[in-house]
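Appendix C. Worked example: Glycosyltransferase
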Amino acid sequence: MLNVIAQNELVADAGEQGLWLAEGDDPYFLIRFSPLRERYVVIKLASRSGEIQPKLYVNRGQGFREEEALTAGSGRNFLIVADVGSFGTICTLRLDPASEPCQLTLEVRAIRSAIALQHFISDQQRQNSELVVARFSRLPRFWKKLPTIRLGKRNTVAARYVEQARILADKLLPGQLGCTDPWLSIVVPVYNAPVRYLNELVSSFEKQNIEGVELVLSDDGSDSSDTLGWFTSQPAKPNIVVVANPINKGIALATNSGIDAARGEWVALLDHDDVIAPNGLTVIQTAIATHPDAEFFYTDELVVNDALEPIGLMLKPAYDPVLLTGVNYINHFSVYRRQRLNEIGKLRSGFEGSQDYDLLLRYLEGLDDAMIIHVPYPAYWWRQTGTTYSSKFIDRATDNARAALKDKFARAGKATEVTEALTTTLHRIRFGTSATNRPKISIIIPNKDSYALMATLLKGIYEQTAYDNHEVIVIDNGSTEPATLALYNEYGQRFPSFSCHIKQATFNFSRAINEGMERASGEHFLLLNNDVEIIDGGWLDELVDCLSYDQVGIVGAKLLYPDRRLQHAGVITGFGGLAGHWYLNKPEDFGGPMNRLHVRNSMTCVTGAVMLISGECARQIGQWDEENFAVAYNDVDYCLRAHKAGFRIVWTPFAYLIHHESVSRGSDRGGENSKRFEREQENLKRLHLTHTFDDPASNPGYSTDRSDPKITPFSSLPVPRRWFT
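Step 2, the predicted output written as structure tokens:
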């Protein structure tokens, strides 16, 4: 029996069986089989994104070593045959399909005999004349010695990133805190932990080379002789405290016992199977010293396997309470003020698997965003083994997370329903405000001629959209097409809420929006491009629902190209020195880092093609800039003005539409349009310094040179970040 496990940013495409998306630069498959097995492992691999150069690895006892890679050649279609023998103690192969992001298909089968193998190869070659057949005969079958792990030897992106971060942090000097000693207590609940995990945790703590910290190990009534033996064998140390709870009461109460024993002004919570990254505590201390009024800090994290080898990175945005209601992206390394922890009652029982999520939601409640600091350093190494409570009992952990979210909004006086997001274990908050008290929405559509587009859009608004408390205002800059004029007349007669205002003028998107808003009578304003196609009736309900989050002034939607690839999942300020869409052309169900494209996010910008603006935001920010941004970047300018004024901008994947981008207006790349486009680019840099902008929705570890940002080691340690500065 064969078992295939995808690792390191390999994502199955839900739209097609057997299709994989390799999103990182070091994706691989582990192919596992039993000691008694069929003789041949046959791998059928095909690329849909150009030529690839797959490699096969066999662990001979020292891990998967780069120098022992077996190369299958170059091409698009491969049949890789591995002769693993009918018996052996080596039971795993590693297949690296490509070193660049790509789409690929994979089939793996076992074949018993050489004759059956030859028949299969011949049949495949008849079907595909370009098939590359790579045969690896008599691979090693037995360990020469017990396997050992060579820590971080593979030159992966994650390994390079954390090593560069460590080197830069080596130069930091500890900050001056002016608080009691110890300044930090690291509390770790322990239950029947393997001795190796405890040794690695303590070693990572002792190697921090920093004073004023203590490690509090709170044992939750362990009955493992190995764990108990480890505790009794440890010499007494002044900075390591052991709390022996006589009976098992669960992780929440064990953690509370550790917090009760802690002496530090600050408390960090770790799991017993994870470790602290080199220089992690120095970076945290420096952040605390430079932000003395802050109440909470959190860091990025490195995902490692059981042997502490890097397999991924979690590079996080600045504090985003909207994203946090969809996924607990914060978690590790979290640093709390001990006094506030005690004031809120520490952890609560009854939220098993999501007790840390419940704690976060309660602790952050009522804090100003400026008091919550993101430290963009991978200070935590999270061992991903699949043996944690939340992974083994995922359904219960998910239910408890949703109970914690429901509690959070109930405390704020908001009745909510919490349902699944596009990833079933993540969350969607339904406030229900649009169903019970639907504010009037003024829909503003700039247009000229474009009968087919307008007919599709208006039909979608009036016949497909569930939300019905709206008016439609078309600002037309000179239509002469009879079919378009007749369409206006038809809708004007059928719907009193429809109006059209035609005036011959040069196209100026900002001017059209300003005129539409002046004519509007609604409570909020919705901008729609004429080349948008409505495909789901609940889209406007969802946009309005997002206004129920605190401080939200603008809401944007998920837009798809006609072939259902991503066109808009938010705009990142600073991309290309200006601003740009991220993850363009990804599949419709692409999740992105931490699956954050499957839940609501805060952004600094969303596109004006579908943009809901609250009345309060519109009144405070004022008119769109007709002079500096007649056509391009006017939505970026408006969003950045709103962001700087303290309004939150939300993007949601639950409102999704088709966008036939710029079909009616054409390109900005030629003649006078090109000169105007270049002027507006320079205006954006001049007014908003986009060439140096650190977008809080992204992370300093991501490149800004492409829509699909890559992890790039930074040249200097980035400063701690807030959402609003």
